[in-house]
Protein backbone atom coordinates (compact mmCIF):
# COMPACT_ATOMS: atom_id res chain seq x y z
CA UNK A 1 0.00 0.00 0.00
CA UNK A 2 1.35 3.39 -1.00
CA UNK A 3 1.85 6.12 1.65
CA UNK A 4 -1.07 8.09 0.16
CA UNK A 5 -3.36 5.06 0.21
CA UNK A 6 -2.31 4.26 3.77
CA UNK A 7 -3.08 7.81 4.89
CA UNK A 8 -6.50 7.67 3.20
CA UNK A 9 -7.21 4.32 4.81
CA UNK A 10 -6.20 5.61 8.24
CA UNK A 11 -8.34 8.69 7.69
CA UNK A 12 -11.41 6.64 6.77
CA UNK A 13 -10.85 4.33 9.75
CA UNK A 14 -10.59 7.30 12.09
CA UNK A 15 -13.77 8.85 10.68
CA UNK A 16 -15.64 5.56 11.00
CA UNK A 17 -14.50 5.16 14.62
CA UNK A 18 -15.53 8.73 15.39
CA UNK A 19 -18.98 8.18 13.86
CA UNK A 20 -19.52 4.97 15.80
CA UNK A 21 -18.42 6.69 19.00
CA UNK A 22 -20.79 9.61 18.33
CA UNK A 23 -23.79 7.36 17.75
CA UNK A 24 -22.96 5.18 20.75
CA UNK A 25 -22.47 8.14 23.09
CA UNK A 26 -25.80 9.57 21.89
CA UNK A 27 -27.63 6.37 22.80
CA UNK A 28 -25.90 6.20 26.20
CA UNK A 29 -26.82 9.83 26.89
CA UNK A 30 -30.48 9.14 26.14
CA UNK A 31 -30.44 6.09 28.40
CA UNK A 32 -28.69 8.01 31.18
CA UNK A 33 -31.31 10.72 30.92
CA UNK A 34 -33.95 8.11 31.64
CA UNK A 35 -35.24 7.27 28.16
CA UNK A 36 -36.54 3.68 28.10
CA UNK A 37 -34.55 1.66 25.60
CA UNK A 38 -37.71 0.26 24.02
CA UNK A 39 -38.89 3.79 23.21
CA UNK A 40 -35.68 4.99 21.55
CA UNK A 41 -36.11 4.68 17.78
CA UNK A 42 -33.43 4.74 15.11
CA UNK A 43 -34.96 8.00 13.87
CA UNK A 44 -34.51 9.53 17.31
CA UNK A 45 -30.89 8.38 17.42
CA UNK A 46 -29.95 9.86 14.04
CA UNK A 47 -31.67 13.13 14.87
CA UNK A 48 -29.90 13.41 18.23
CA UNK A 49 -26.53 12.36 16.78
CA UNK A 50 -26.85 14.55 13.70
CA UNK A 51 -26.09 11.81 11.20
CA UNK A 52 -28.00 10.55 8.19
CA UNK A 53 -29.92 7.28 8.13
CA UNK A 54 -27.48 5.97 5.50
CA UNK A 55 -24.55 6.84 7.77
CA UNK A 56 -26.17 5.11 10.72
CA UNK A 57 -26.77 1.89 8.80
CA UNK A 58 -23.29 2.00 7.32
CA UNK A 59 -21.97 1.45 10.85
CA UNK A 60 -24.74 -0.40 12.73
CA UNK A 61 -27.34 -3.00 11.80
CA UNK A 62 -29.88 -1.41 14.13
CA UNK A 63 -30.27 0.02 17.60
CA UNK A 64 -29.58 -3.33 19.29
CA UNK A 65 -26.22 -3.34 17.52
CA UNK A 66 -25.47 0.04 19.13
CA UNK A 67 -26.42 -1.34 22.54
CA UNK A 68 -24.18 -4.39 22.11
CA UNK A 69 -21.33 -2.07 21.04
CA UNK A 70 -21.79 -0.02 24.21
CA UNK A 71 -22.03 -3.10 26.41
CA UNK A 72 -19.00 -4.69 24.77
CA UNK A 73 -16.86 -1.65 25.58
CA UNK A 74 -18.07 -1.77 29.17
CA UNK A 75 -17.47 -5.53 29.37
CA UNK A 76 -13.81 -5.08 28.47
CA UNK A 77 -13.40 -2.67 31.39
CA UNK A 78 -15.14 -5.07 33.78
CA UNK A 79 -13.15 -8.07 32.55
CA UNK A 80 -9.93 -6.13 33.07
CA UNK A 81 -11.00 -5.61 36.69
CA UNK A 82 -11.98 -9.29 37.04
CA UNK A 83 -8.61 -10.48 35.76
CA UNK A 84 -6.95 -8.40 38.47
CA UNK A 85 -9.49 -9.47 41.08
CA UNK A 86 -7.55 -12.38 42.60
CA UNK A 87 -7.36 -11.50 46.31
CA UNK A 88 -4.04 -13.31 46.70
CA UNK A 89 -3.12 -15.54 49.59
CA UNK A 90 -2.33 -12.97 52.28
CA UNK A 91 -4.34 -11.75 55.24
CA UNK A 92 -5.89 -8.90 53.23
CA UNK A 93 -8.00 -11.14 50.97
CA UNK A 94 -11.31 -9.55 51.96
CA UNK A 95 -9.78 -6.08 51.70
CA UNK A 96 -8.60 -6.76 48.15
CA UNK A 97 -11.99 -8.14 47.16
CA UNK A 98 -13.73 -5.16 48.75
CA UNK A 99 -11.66 -2.76 46.69
CA UNK A 100 -12.38 -4.85 43.59
CA UNK A 101 -16.14 -4.71 44.18
CA UNK A 102 -15.98 -1.00 44.98
CA UNK A 103 -14.58 -0.44 41.48
CA UNK A 104 -17.08 -2.85 39.89
CA UNK A 105 -20.08 -1.19 41.54
CA UNK A 106 -18.82 2.27 40.60
CA UNK A 107 -18.50 1.20 36.97
CA UNK A 108 -21.97 -0.35 37.02
CA UNK A 109 -23.46 2.80 38.54
CA UNK A 110 -21.72 5.07 36.02
CA UNK A 111 -23.20 3.03 33.15
CA UNK A 112 -26.44 2.02 34.81
CA UNK A 113 -28.55 3.12 31.83
CA UNK A 114 -26.68 0.85 29.41
CA UNK A 115 -26.68 -2.16 31.73
CA UNK A 116 -30.38 -1.74 32.48
CA UNK A 117 -31.12 -1.55 28.76
CA UNK A 118 -29.10 -4.72 28.13
CA UNK A 119 -31.03 -6.63 30.78
CA UNK A 120 -34.32 -5.31 29.38
CA UNK A 121 -33.52 -6.05 25.74
CA UNK A 122 -32.13 -9.49 26.58
CA UNK A 123 -35.69 -10.62 27.41
CA UNK A 124 -36.92 -10.11 23.84
CA UNK A 125 -33.95 -9.45 21.52
CA UNK A 126 -32.00 -12.59 20.60
CA UNK A 127 -28.82 -10.70 19.66
CA UNK A 128 -28.70 -8.88 22.99
CA UNK A 129 -29.66 -12.04 24.88
CA UNK A 130 -26.79 -13.96 23.28
CA UNK A 131 -24.38 -11.18 24.18
CA UNK A 132 -25.68 -10.95 27.76
CA UNK A 133 -25.28 -14.70 28.28
CA UNK A 134 -21.81 -14.76 26.71
CA UNK A 135 -20.84 -11.76 28.84
CA UNK A 136 -21.65 -13.51 32.12
CA UNK A 137 -20.14 -16.77 30.89
CA UNK A 138 -16.91 -14.86 30.25
CA UNK A 139 -16.82 -13.60 33.85
CA UNK A 140 -17.74 -17.08 35.07
CA UNK A 141 -14.74 -18.55 33.26
CA UNK A 142 -12.35 -15.90 34.66
CA UNK A 143 -13.45 -16.66 38.23
CA UNK A 144 -13.38 -20.42 37.62
CA UNK A 145 -9.83 -20.22 36.27
CA UNK A 146 -8.73 -18.14 39.26
CA UNK A 147 -10.25 -20.61 41.72
CA UNK A 148 -8.61 -23.56 39.96
CA UNK A 149 -5.26 -21.77 40.15
CA UNK A 150 -5.78 -21.11 43.85
CA UNK A 151 -6.69 -24.77 44.43
CA UNK A 152 -3.51 -25.87 42.67
CA UNK A 153 -1.51 -23.55 44.94
CA UNK A 154 -3.27 -24.81 48.05
CA UNK A 155 -4.87 -21.42 48.78
CA UNK A 156 -8.42 -22.70 48.21
CA UNK A 157 -9.48 -26.11 49.54
CA UNK A 158 -9.81 -29.06 47.19
CA UNK A 159 -13.33 -29.71 48.50
CA UNK A 160 -14.62 -26.63 46.64
CA UNK A 161 -16.52 -27.39 43.43
CA UNK A 162 -15.11 -24.50 41.42
CA UNK A 163 -17.56 -24.84 38.52
CA UNK A 164 -20.61 -24.59 40.75
CA UNK A 165 -19.06 -21.97 43.04
CA UNK A 166 -18.07 -19.63 40.20
CA UNK A 167 -21.54 -19.96 38.68
CA UNK A 168 -23.23 -19.06 41.95
CA UNK A 169 -21.07 -16.07 42.85
CA UNK A 170 -20.88 -14.58 39.34
CA UNK A 171 -24.49 -14.97 38.20
CA UNK A 172 -25.90 -14.35 41.67
CA UNK A 173 -23.59 -11.40 42.29
CA UNK A 174 -24.62 -9.81 39.00
CA UNK A 175 -28.29 -9.99 39.97
CA UNK A 176 -27.52 -8.59 43.42
CA UNK A 177 -25.68 -5.58 41.98
CA UNK A 178 -28.44 -4.95 39.43
CA UNK A 179 -31.14 -4.98 42.12
CA UNK A 180 -29.04 -2.81 44.43
CA UNK A 181 -28.63 -0.13 41.76
CA UNK A 182 -32.39 -0.02 41.25
CA UNK A 183 -33.24 0.45 44.92
CA UNK A 184 -30.22 2.26 46.40
CA UNK A 185 -29.17 5.88 45.88
CA UNK A 186 -25.48 5.08 46.25
CA UNK A 187 -25.27 5.43 50.02
CA UNK A 188 -25.19 1.65 50.39
CA UNK A 189 -22.53 0.95 47.76
CA UNK A 190 -19.71 0.54 50.31
CA UNK A 191 -21.76 -1.93 52.36
CA UNK A 192 -22.62 -3.95 49.24
CA UNK A 193 -18.93 -4.11 48.28
CA UNK A 194 -17.99 -5.35 51.76
CA UNK A 195 -20.72 -8.00 51.86
CA UNK A 196 -19.98 -9.28 48.35
CA UNK A 197 -16.30 -9.51 49.29
CA UNK A 198 -17.06 -11.47 52.45
CA UNK A 199 -19.42 -13.83 50.63
CA UNK A 200 -16.90 -14.49 47.86
CA UNK A 201 -14.03 -14.90 50.34
CA UNK A 202 -15.67 -17.16 52.92
CA UNK A 203 -17.83 -18.93 50.36
CA UNK A 204 -15.11 -19.74 47.82
CA UNK A 205 -11.71 -18.02 47.67
CA UNK A 206 -10.72 -18.37 51.32
CA UNK A 207 -13.12 -21.08 52.39
CA UNK A 208 -11.63 -23.14 55.23
CA UNK A 209 -10.96 -26.76 54.42
CA UNK A 210 -13.75 -29.09 55.43
CA UNK A 211 -12.81 -31.30 58.38
CA UNK A 212 -12.41 -34.98 57.76
CA UNK A 213 -15.53 -36.93 58.68
CA UNK A 214 -15.24 -38.18 62.25
CA UNK A 215 -14.87 -41.96 62.40
CA UNK A 216 -17.85 -43.74 63.81
CA UNK A 217 -17.31 -44.88 67.41
CA UNK A 218 -16.48 -48.52 67.73
CA UNK A 219 -19.42 -50.68 68.62
CA UNK A 220 -18.87 -52.75 71.66
CA UNK A 221 -21.22 -55.65 71.37
CA UNK A 222 -22.46 -56.79 74.73
CA UNK A 223 -23.74 -60.25 75.37
CA UNK A 224 -27.53 -60.38 75.34
CA UNK A 225 -29.16 -60.09 78.68
CA UNK A 226 -31.22 -63.15 79.46
CA UNK A 227 -34.91 -62.72 80.12
CA UNK A 228 -34.56 -64.20 83.55
CA UNK A 229 -31.76 -61.83 84.49
CA UNK A 230 -33.69 -58.86 83.11
CA UNK A 231 -36.65 -59.76 85.32
CA UNK A 232 -34.46 -60.56 88.27
CA UNK A 233 -34.14 -63.86 90.00
CA UNK A 234 -36.77 -64.91 92.46
Automatic annotation (TrEMBL):
Where on the tree of life does the source sit, at the highest rank?
Bacteria
Task: Please give the InterPro entries that the UniProt record associates with this protein.
Answer: Homeodomain-like_sf, HTH-type_TetR-like_transc_reg, HTH_TetR, Tet_transcr_reg_TetR-rel_C_sf
Q: Does Nucleus show up as a keyword for this record?
A: no
Record-linked PANTHER family = HTH-TYPE TRANSCRIPTIONAL REGULATOR BETI, HTH-TYPE TRANSCRIPTIONAL REGULATOR RUTR
Domain (HTH tetR-type) ranges: 17-78
Which terms are listed as keywords in the entry?
DNA-binding, Transcription, Transcription regulation
Q: Which parts of the sequence are annotated with region: Disordered?
A: 207-234
Descriptive protein name: TetR/AcrR family transcriptional regulator
Q: Has UniProt tagged this entry with the keyword DNA-binding?
A: yes
Query: Which residue ranges hold the DNA-binding region?
Result: 41-60
Amino acid sequence: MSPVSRRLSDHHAARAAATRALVASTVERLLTEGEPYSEISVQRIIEEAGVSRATFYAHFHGKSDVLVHLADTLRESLLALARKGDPGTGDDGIGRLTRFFTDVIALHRAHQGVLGAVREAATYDAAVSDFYTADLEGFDEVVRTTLLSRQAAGATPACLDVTVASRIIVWGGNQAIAHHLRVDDGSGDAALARELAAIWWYGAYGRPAAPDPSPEPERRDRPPVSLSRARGSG
